[in-house]
Amino acid sequence: MSILGEAAAALLWLATVGIMVVKTPRSVTTFYRLQALAGAGIAVVLAVHGHRTLLWVTVGLTVIVRMALIPEIVRRGLITSRGVYSAKTPIGAGGLLMYVLVLSAAGILLGRMGMPNPTLAGLVFAAMFVSCLQLSARYEVWSMLWALLSLDTIVDVGVVMFGRAIPASVDVGFYAVSVSLALVLALVAHRIQEVHSTLDVRNLEELIG
Amino acid sequence: MSAALWILPLGLIICAVASLVLPHRSSVGLRRFAIVFLAAALTTQIARIWHGFDPLSGWYFVTVAVLSIFALWYSGPYIAREAQQHQWSTRRCQSYDALLFVFIASLLAIALWTNLLWLWVAMEAATFSSVVLAALPNTTASIEAAWKYVIVTETGAMFALLGTVLALTAVGSPLFAWHALPAHLLLTTARQHWALIGAYFALVGYGAKAGLAPFHTWLPDAHSEAPAPVSGLLSAIKLAGAVVIVYRLFRILTPVVPALYLQDALIGLGLLSLLIAASSLAFQRDLKRFWAYSSIEHIGIISLGVGFGGIALIGAALHIWTHAISKTLLFHNAGTVRLLYHTSDSQYGARAILHRTPWTGALLALGSAAIVGLPPFAPFWSEWLVLAGGFHQVGDRVFVAIAAALLVVIFVAIARRVPTWLFSAGPVGMPPSAPAISEPVALILPSVALAVLVVIGGIALPLVAHPLWQHLVHQLGSVYL
Questions:
Q1: Domain-by-domain residue ranges, chain A?
Q2: What secondary structure does DSSP assign to B13-46, as a single string?
Q3: Which of A163, A189, A195 is nearest residue B165 as measured by Cβ atoms?
Q4: Of the candidates A192, A193, A199, A185, which has an alpha carbon nearest to the alpha carbon of residue A70?
Q5: Closest Cα in chain A, distance from residue B23 (Å)
């Protein structure tokens, strides 16, 4: 895999960390778009190097849905939730970054367990773990939604990358299903906003059900 | 067989589209058509005119078809009354019908399809239709429940997809044969590691879909806020469907991945689920939430059965059915309680149910006796098979002892809590002998039919579906993951 693929994977990881630690709505949207751009970059590399021309459809879907549609829906739908988004946990941003470091190391190590492209695989795993941390550490609608959308992007990149035994047509089909689900998720969040100005489920009783 | 794979889900998707396009007055006709359609599929399957991919697939299909018929039947009177009480618009009623058809279609697909990628798509369709169904009452609580449901289970979906692709790519299985391994496959150690990592990812993902602890946090909210027929299908069928998918994946992987790791993971999650249920059931005041925690217990039992293997696996397959009929009865019953008492919370008026609504109370008592595993109800036999199968494995005896102890705690919790709804004096502020409430026949009749099935059909089903059951026992009796 070319250096371009590894650079795209590094950008994917950086954008995921960015989504986790940034505080302003504008920057989180930008980081999500950067993450989608990195995903599209990996798809381009796979399309060119693997001679899988159908993957250009994946690139197109990424640009239209992930970079344009989803950030716009979330931006409009959750406009009043923006204020609650920040690293408000007791441990603060420094603590979060330490967790990010440990999880990223774990992801990179995992990638070295016999994968054909260890650096690339390791960075994708690292990004996935960081996204999972954001999902479990934050309970505001705004950050959880971005975390899930971000995880969705990373997993799709992983599936396109690892599932090379899959014919490209099926790969694209699954990517399309997954992107549609992300779109539905953004729309559900929009709907939630109509009944809640915010939805903070951090209180213990709610978490344990 | 291959036609049935598509015809059955497609038939219900057509019903879904029709319910959105046709005027609302045609909804009764559409529901009846779907019931006849499912009954015909069921009859032809039992008559062996067509058959599923394997006996487990056939067995699960029977469960899906029977319980879906009851859900469609009960939905008619339930939604009519719900719409009347909470001013549902015609459009919302139509959306309910359409989404219910899609939900049932996706459950049928889980029963019939075998390719693990298509199974993932079917599970996603089931999740999204049920998320929107859970949010349909449009209350703050229901929207919040739908949000939690979608967040937790979608995270699971990502893990499940990545895990499935990783594991199957590692073993080099070609896409359209992703229900079997190439013969005489030998893997390098690195590829074995990847197959195992993929299997664990998939277990976490589908474990979240199944509501296995510790990924269960969405389940009590979603089950308690969704309309009762949907809660029934969610608990009875969808949860077990996720475990069936995990079983299919693990069966493909076990020739090349150490089976013990996979078995232990399933047993660990099963025991943890029993522990969560045992520690939570005694403190629930809402009837629907109470049965939601009980679902965590039963999905734990199914997971234990699959983990133990052999006789316990047969017990798990039987438990899918026995839990499904008993729990559907209880969720429909809880829905009736909520409609008649305007709450299912024992603190806010759902009390003295046996006195005020004798039919509803009697059905609650009967369903509770069945679900705790009292003999001669069918769940007793399936739970017994799971525990006996586990005890058969010398290495698993400690786990069986822990599971049995937790089941006793759960039994005590249910036996202690259910009388609060059944017998406690009337609501606070009302005289001890609160007035009786009229029970509409249309609401009670589907539950009475289910109760008959719980009493008789639960035990007799293996006899009714004799060849299918024999085939299942023959195939699974010697299977250890």
A1: 3-207
A2: HHHHHHHHHS-GGGHHHHHHHHHHHHHHHHHHHH
A3: A163
A4: A185
A5: 26
| DSSP helix/strand/coil, A140 | strand
Out of A113, A151, A191, name the one closest to residue B193 (CB): A113
Q: Residue B67 is which amino acid?
A: L
Angle at B358 (CA atoms; ends B355, B361), nearest 5 degrees: 90
Measure the CA–CA gap between B243 and B159, rounded to whole angstroms: 15
Q: List Cβ neighbours of B276 (8 Å cut-off, separation of 6 or more).
A: B213, B214, B216, B293, B296
Q: Where are the domains of chain B?
A: 272-481
ipTM reported for the complex surpasses 0.90? no
Q: What are phi and psi of B126, to 5 degrees?
A: -65, -40
pLDDT by residue, tens only, chain A of 209 residues: 678 888 999 999 999 998 887 767 778 889 999 999 999 999 898 888 877 888 899 899 999 999 988 888 877 765 544 444 445 555 566 777 888 899 999 999 988 887 778 888 899 999 999 988 888 765 566 677 888 889 989 988 888 888 776 777 777 888 888 888 888 778 777 766 666 554 444 443 443 33
Whether B143 sits inside 8 A of A192 (CB atoms) is yes
Distance, in Å, from the CA atom of B301 to the CA atom of B388, rounded to the nearest integer, reads 12
Q: Cα B5 to chain center, whole Å?
A: 21
Residue A118 forms contact with B (CB below 8 Å)? no
Check CB contact of B295 with chain A, cutoff 8 Å: no
End-to-end CA distance of chain A: 46
Distance (Å) from the alpha carbon of B146 to chain A's nearest alpha carbon: 9
Amino acid at A125: F
Q: Is A165–B172 a contact, with Cβ atoms under 8 angstroms apart?
A: yes
DSSP code of residue B436: P
Cα A68 from Cα A29, distance rounded (Å): 10
| 3-state class (DSSP) for residue B286 | strand
Q: Are B67 and B330 in contact (CB under 8 A)?
A: no
Q: Which amino acid, residue A164?
A: R
Q: How far does the CA of residue B221 sit from the closest CA of chain A (Å)?
A: 7
State how far the alpha carbon of A45 is from the alpha carbons of A155, B54, B66, B213, B402, in Å: 17, 41, 49, 40, 52
Q: Which amino acid is at B260?
A: L
**Chain B CB within 8 Å of residue A93 CB:** no
Q: Got the DSSP string for B204-229?
A: HHHHHHHT-TTS-TTHHHHHHHS-HH
The pLDDT tens digits for A144-192 are 788 888 998 998 888 888 877 677 777 788 888 888 888 877 877 776 6
Highest mean pLDDT among B108-117, B125-134, B306-315, B400-409: B400-409
The phi, psi pair for A188, rounded to 5°, reads: -60, -40
Q: Supply B441's token pair.
A: 């026949």
Q: How far is residue B383's CA from residue B361's CA, in Å, rounded to a whole number?
A: 25
Look up tokens 């045609």; give the residue. Answer: B26
- What is the rounded (10 degree) CA torsion for A117, A121, A122, A123? 120
Q: In which residue are the tokens 């505001």 written?
A: A140
Contact indicator for A192, B143 with CB cutoff of 8 Å: yes
Overall residue count recorded for chain B in this entry: 481
Q: CB atoms < 10 A from the CB of B188, how many?
A: 10
Give the residues across from A140 on adjacent strands: A200
* Residue B309 near residue B205 (C-beta atoms within 8 A): no
Alpha carbons A44 and B427: distance in angstroms, whole number: 66
- Residue A145 structure tokens: 């939604």
